[in-house]
Amino acid sequence: MSSVAAQSTIWAVIVGMAVVNFALRFAPIAVFSRIELHPRFLRWLEYVPISVMGALVATEVLRPGSHWQPPLTNPGLYAAVLTAIVFRYSRSFLGATVAGMVSFVLLRAIIF
Amino acid sequence: MPRMPQTPYTSPPASAIHPGRHSALHGPRWIRFLRGARLGLPIFLGYVPVGVAFGVLARTIGFSVFQALLCSATAIAGAGQFIALSLLSGGTGALMTVFATAVVNSRYVLFGTTLSPHLRGVRPTVMSWLAFTLTDETFAVNIADRRDGLSTPASMAGAGAIAWCGWVLGTGIGAAGAGWIGDPTRWGMDFAMPAMFAALFVALAENRRHVLVGLLAGAVALALPALSAAGLTVSPSWFVVIASIVSASIAAVAFSE
């Protein structure tokens, strides 16, 4: 990353991103909260959140920055498992997140 | 809070199961808003360092401090914003750059659709704010809270507000201090997001089926890059969306009784 973008381009991107991102987020909420959804569609929706989270965790932990990290020497994998366990028993997002970050730093510094 | 088994004939009052349940659902609106904000505190924690990274990078591409702040404040689109920067620095035009961020953020359509049945009759202003602050993290936190039966539009608005604050604050720090901030993802801050996703995975996994479906989605997401290596090119920004759709569809068919 070296070249500097033109001011007009930067402004256009800022405005364009604001509009597009809001439209993407607002349109489905506005439309689907008004109409009755098919039960089969609702059953499909029930499995969307857990799927998204599974895909995100796997991608972020095992392919950080789009590069595959061998699981056995990946401090993130151990830290993620620990985070999940801490959350399982504490039910605290903040506690689990902090525990994950601390264990990640320690594992990265000491072991790997 | 661990889930307690509930027998149909001696079911205790709801307040005994969730001590804070009454105020979470029926308290004044600002109490519910603040409860949501507290729920979103880990999001804040995770967004600040990533926002700093965006701020620093934006300055090197030619954004002013004000432009960087404005971009984060109006788009709140983590990955989408980073991709925009990398395209801009490569000389890509405005139209193509905006289109690329739309592709990266197409998962918001999935999130919005999933949330929509819970937002019937919500006022348009509140609905707009919830849509505006819809991200991976606010979605997951609010859906998990909804599963616990505690979420209200006010609490969702609170979670969105604290997330927005973290993202904008981080961007401001990064853009203003771009000269002397080194690597903004030191101190494990880069693990804040993955850690939160791991916790949210547990929060959303209600039963064994959910765990199975989530693992399947993870496996599909990891397999997709291998497919593209085999000649079938799939843009990395689509991995999460495709994996989620595939996995949820398999689940909806397999578990349809």
Give a structural overview:
The complex is a heterodimer of chains A (112) and B (257). Chain A has 112 residues and is an all-alpha fold. Chain A has 2 domains: 35 residues; 69 residues, no CATH class. Chain A contains 5 helices and no strands. In chain A, helix 4 runs antiparallel to helix 5. The radius of gyration of chain A is 20 Å and the shape is flat. The two termini of chain A are 30 Å apart. The model of chain A has no long low-confidence stretch (mean pLDDT 88). Chain B is mostly helical and 257 residues long. In chain B, 70% of the residues lie in helices and 0% in strands. Chain B contains 14 helices and no strands. Chains A and B meet through helix 1, helix 2, helix 3, helix 4 and helix 5 of A and helix 4, helix 5, helix 6, helix 7 and helix 8 of B.
Task: Furnish the topology, listing elements before pairings.
The complex is a heterodimer of chains A (112) and B (257).
Chain A: H1 7-32, H2 39-46, H3 48-62, H4 75-90, H5 93-111
Chain B: H1 14-17, H2 21-26, H3 29-39, H4 41-61, H5 65-75, H6 78-89, H7 94-104, H8 107-115, H9 124-132, H10 136-147, H11 153-176, H12 192-204, H13 208-229, H14 239-254
Helix pairs in contact in B: 3-11, 4-5, 4-6, 4-11, 5-11, 6-7, 9-11, 10-11, 10-12, 13-14
